[in-house]
Amino acid sequence: MRRLVIPVLAFKGVLINCSVNIQRIEKDLYRLSEFGGNAAEKGIYRQGFSEADWQARSWLMDYFRQYGLVTHMDGVGNVCGRLGDNELPAVLIGSHLDSVPAGGMFDGVLGVIAGLECIRVIQEQKIPLKHPIEVIATSEEEGRFGGMLGAQALTGALTLDWLEHAKAPDGLALVDAMAQRGLDYHQALHAYRTPESIKAFLELHIEQGPVLEASGNSIGVVEGISGIFKWLIKLIGKADHAGTAPMNMRSDAFMGVADFAHEIQRIIDEDGTDKSRLTIGRVELKPGYAHTIPGEADFTLVGRDMSEEVMHELATNCRKALSSIARRHRLMFEYEQMSWLGPKTCSQDIMSLIETHTQKLNYSYEIMPSGAGHDAQFFTDITPTGMIFIPSIGGISHAPDEWSHWADVEKGCNVLLNTVIELAAE
Ligand SMILES: [Zn+2]
């Protein structure tokens, strides 16, 4: 009888095509979904600094320790588990543990468990590594208090002033929420990691959109995170009687919104790219009565693109379109820019490393931007950063129906594992 030989290929002296144990990953993801999970399948409620979030963090710390990781919670609530005790720059693998209200069981948590699984495989197969590997379950990414708190603290983007003013929509101050969990918010700034202490940052995440499913590709190699701007726009006309005011004598603020909505595709065709997005997400009409012509329309406009120059062109074109529409409908036009965040680019070197391992594993893939914000975007400022996406069924996320095929989860974790091994080996 022939002996079964498992081929082990050498690449730069490192074993490649290692595989994760998908049953173990599946079990861990189900276990974590119990924290803040609703038995009636109404989704997961594990918002930053909630009781459920804290129970999940304490469970994870115990779990990290079971695998012998040097484990601690930093001053902002990030749970960190480290393998390797030398002082060389560490390969960080991270994503968030908190959820949106009624969220799904993959968003964020997948990246954390995938990181732990990488460590388990490395331990079991006794793969020799030069650099430490650290898994970080970040704190308050989803925005209960503004979002990406843990990543901002780790990368030095966090300020005391911001901490002291952040509030949840129900009025709860971030500093009070932290105090409820036994954290002194001054300690949050000590979570900062110097660029010299980090070799790279990697995040595996569900796509949360329909692109990979539509293309049939299993892996998205993320090239960067789209820049984003948010405007609050006001169109002011004249509230009037819906029966007595003739159609040609109105200053109907809603007509202005409707006309602008129709201009969006033209603006993108003229000045945008296939990565441009313009969205009117909220409209409020005043006074808001069925029999009154709206005298005022307040609405939001959110624009995104992978190029800051394109973002500026889109913004200029939107401004021009709104001015001309306002004139046409005898409206006043005002807007306030609430935020402007430039695009963030992933490291070319890490992208090609991810690509190489995806090819070796024989998975189909494409290079794509991330339309959504992620912890990784803050790391692009201080260290070579890479992100891996796997398909979301129906593109659904931030909802109880969020799901990904286990086969795709396995593929994403395998790409992460092989990338991490190569990064930590040299
Ligand atoms: Zn997420």
What report would you give on this structure?
By secondary structure, the protein is of the alpha+beta class. It has 12 helices and 18 strands. The radius of gyration is 24 Å and the shape is globular. The model is unreliable at 1-15 (pLDDT under 50).
Short description:
The chain is of the alpha+beta class. The chain is built from twelve helices and 18 strands.
Q: Report the helical percentage.
A: 25-40%
Cα shape: globular
What's the Cα radius of gyration?
A: 24 Å
* Helix vs. strand class: alpha+beta
Low-pLDDT sequence parts = 1-15
What is the number of strand segments? 18
What tags apply to this protein structure?
12 helices; 9-stranded mixed β-sheet; 34% helix; disordered N terminus; 5-stranded antiparallel β-sheet; 426 residues; binds zinc ion; alpha+beta; single chain
What order do the helices and strands come in, and which of them pair?
Blueprint (H helix, E strand, L loop, with lengths): L9 E2 L2 E2 L6 H12 L17 H16 L3 E4 L5 E5 L6 E7 L12 H16 L8 E6 L10 H7 L4 H6 L8 H7 L17 E9 L4 H5 L3 E7 L1 E10 L3 E2 L11 H19 L5 E3 L3 E4 L5 E2 L2 E10 L2 H21 L3 E10 L2 E2 L2 H13 L4 E6 L5 H4 L5 E6 L15 H20 L1
Parallel strand pairs: 5-6, 5-7, 7-18, 8-17
Antiparallel strand pairs: 1-2, 3-4, 4-6, 8-16, 8-18, 9-14, 9-15, 10-13, 11-14, 12-14
Bound molecules: zinc ion.
Zinc ion (ZN) binds next to loops.
